[in-house]
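To the wet lab folks,

You asked to see what we're planning to order before we commit. Fair enough. Below is the target structure as tokens, and below that is the sequence we designed to fit it. If anything looks off to you, flag it before the synthesis order goes out.
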């Protein structure tokens, strides 16, 4: 399935392209479909094709000419290649993969995720977070997040931020607000460690 055509069909704001494959089962009226999906989104990139995967179930509204909405959608597993988000916002700095498990509510214009997240860049140490993330498409994309950092391993972000190659790790609470290029960050640090000296 061509994603660009699908989004155009439902008049969605996202400028996302690629090929979608997998399985979807749905029962009920169009404005309150009980949906189960197991999907893979594949997009071309300058280096190679990138893929994101989703296995989830819940209630989805598909109004004709309206905005696609999600109600109590449970995400069993999801893996997102963040390079795909550059088509939504070219200022997106992260180039790793994000694994998610939790719940999704809202619409394609304003959605909220609540659950656990793991971010990893290649074979570097992963970072684990828990909490709520809201994405609102206000041109540009606006993020609001309230997160507990189980382990934010800064050295694991060095593909996106090379100056963090020798950084340690941080735990605590983090609040984010704003577009990616002018994101407001407020944190309460519980612990900080540095790599052992060699």
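Sequence we intend to order:
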């Amino acid at each position: 399935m061509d994603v660009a055509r699908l989004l155009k069909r439902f008049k969605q704001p996202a400028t996302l392209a690629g090929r979608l494959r997998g399985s979807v089962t749905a029962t009920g009226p169009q404005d309150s479909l009980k949906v189960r999906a197991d999907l893979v989104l594949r997009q071309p990139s300058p280096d190679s094709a990138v893929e994101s995967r989703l296995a989830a179930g819940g209630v989805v509204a598909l109004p004709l000419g309206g905005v696609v909405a999600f109600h109590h959608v449970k995400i069993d597993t999801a893996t997102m290649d963040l390079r795909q988000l550059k088509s939504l916002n070219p200022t997106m700095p992260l180039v790793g993969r994000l694994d998610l498990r939790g719940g999704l509510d809202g619409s394609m214009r304003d959605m909220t995720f609540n659950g656990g997240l793991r971010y990893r860049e290649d074979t570097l140490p992963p970072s684990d977070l828990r909490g709520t993330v809201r994405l609102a498409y206000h041109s540009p994309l606006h993020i609001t997040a309230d997160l507990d950092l189980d382990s934010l391993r800064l050295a694991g972000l060095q593909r996106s931020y090379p100056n963090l190659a020798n950084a340690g790790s941080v735990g605590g609470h983090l609040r984010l607000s704003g577009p990616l290029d002018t994101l407001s960050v407020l944190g309460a640090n519980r612990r900080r460690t540095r790599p052992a000296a060699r």
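Structural context that might help your review: The CA atoms of residues 52 and 183 lie 25 Å apart. The first helix runs from residue 3 to 9.

Thanks,
Computational group
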